[in-house]
């Protein structure tokens, strides 16, 4: 075969254009479809043919087009990560963990903020069905039936949401808030409020159930206050509501609300923890240097992002020897700081 037919480089030595798959096919003396298979799915091509294609591609400095590769394989090599609120520090670590795992696998992350809206979330999932290879869905606000339907038509892994038949990564915060209640009990607190998250939050409902169960065991009165949007701005109203319950301590749905409460309590000259102990959840960035530093449930949030992507990729690119994992539960623990202390009326 004449070299001129395959070499896209002109006689002068300067490259006139990037090498194409047709150039590689001519030089390797195979069809363009064989080149595509050899480079994108080498296991489907005889090893001698694959080596010939690889040598030709290297000689021509051929770089496969992502667009062409997507068309031939039906894959985009992108994964969408949907979060309810991109400004919430909880999701910083989740996004970072997902990003690092995707980078290592040669995938690109598409980040979508669903604005705490089930309608926005549903619309984004429909778009991502065609625009990505799969979805990591954090703290979904969709109904169970809707999530199950989504999982039937596209690869998806949820974080902090557990629906039968849908792969999930769950942070065991109920155990963490149970530890928090035990901690408060040991400090003499007998009337405790739970400051709830959004009404449609699966994780908030689980934490309340765990607190009710543990409160009954310990002989503590626990009161439900809320629901509240999981934002810093909810803290002022939440603090006022808790003060109206005449409790000595509160366990709060997340650190953002708790930090907002600390600001409001300071404005109202309520001393924390001398008059009211406050316990948050998640241990997000900033919880250790607010005033006072926040006692909170520490969760491995970055690990959750990594594990969710690993589970998703096992569905996008399945390995016959390793069945995809359906559920992962990550442990949490209580981190005690200065915002919790003895109950005002506790015996010395």
TrEMBL record:
Molecular function GO terms recorded: DNA-binding transcription factor activity; transcription cis-regulatory region binding
Keyword Hydrolase on entry: no
Membrane spanning stretches: none
UniProtKB keywords: DNA-binding, Transcription, Transcription regulation
Statement: the UniProt record of this protein carries the keyword Transcription regulation: yes
Database matches in SMART domains: HTH_LACI
Residues in HTH lacI-type domain copies: 19-73
Highest taxon above the source species: Bacteria
Protein name: LacI family transcriptional regulator
Organism, scientific name: Pseudonocardia kunmingensis
């Amino acid at each position: 075969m004449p070299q001129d037919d395959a070499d896209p480089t002109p006689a002068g030595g300067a490259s006139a254009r990037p090498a194409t798959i047709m150039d590689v096919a001519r030089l390797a003396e195979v069809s363009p479809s064989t080149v595509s298979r050899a480079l994108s799915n080498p296991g489907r091509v005889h090893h001698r043919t694959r080596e010939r294609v690889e040598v030709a591609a290297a000689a021509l400095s051929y770089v496969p087009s992502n667009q062409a590769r997507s068309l031939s394989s039906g894959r985009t090599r992108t994964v969408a990560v949907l979060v309810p609120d991109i400004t919430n520090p909880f999701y910083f670590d989740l996004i970072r963990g997902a990003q690092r795992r995707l980078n290592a696998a040669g995938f690109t992350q598409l980040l979508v903020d669903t604005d705490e809206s089930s309608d926005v979330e549903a619309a984004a999932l429909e778009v991502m069905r065609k625009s990505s290879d799969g979805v990591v869905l954090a703290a979904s606000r969709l109904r169970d039936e809707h999530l199950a339907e989504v999982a039937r038509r596209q690869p998806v892994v949820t974080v902090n949401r557990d629906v039968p038949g849908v792969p999930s990564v769950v942070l065991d915060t109920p155990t963490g808030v149970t530890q928090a209640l035990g901690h408060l009990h040991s400090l003499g607190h007998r009337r405790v409020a739970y400051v709830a998250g959004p009404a449609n939050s699966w994780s908030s409902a689980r934490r309340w159930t765990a607190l009710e169960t543990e409160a009954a065991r310990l002989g503590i009165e626990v009161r439900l206050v809320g629901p509240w949007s999981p934002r810093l701005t909810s803290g002022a109203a939440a603090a006022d509501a808790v003060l109206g319950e005449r409790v000595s301590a509160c366990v709060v749905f997340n650190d953002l609300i708790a930090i907002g409460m600390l600001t409001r309590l300071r404005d109202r000259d309520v001393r924390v923890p001398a008059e009211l102990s406050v316990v948050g959840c998640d241990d997000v960035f900033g919880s250790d240097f607010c005033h006072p530093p926040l006692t909170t449930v520490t969760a491995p949030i970055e690990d959750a992002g990594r594990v969710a992507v690993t589970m998703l990729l096992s569905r996008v690119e399945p390995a016959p020897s390793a069945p995809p994992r359906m559920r992962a539960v990550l442990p949490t623990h209580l981190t005690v700081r200065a915002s919790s202390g003895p109950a005002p009326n506790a015996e010395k």
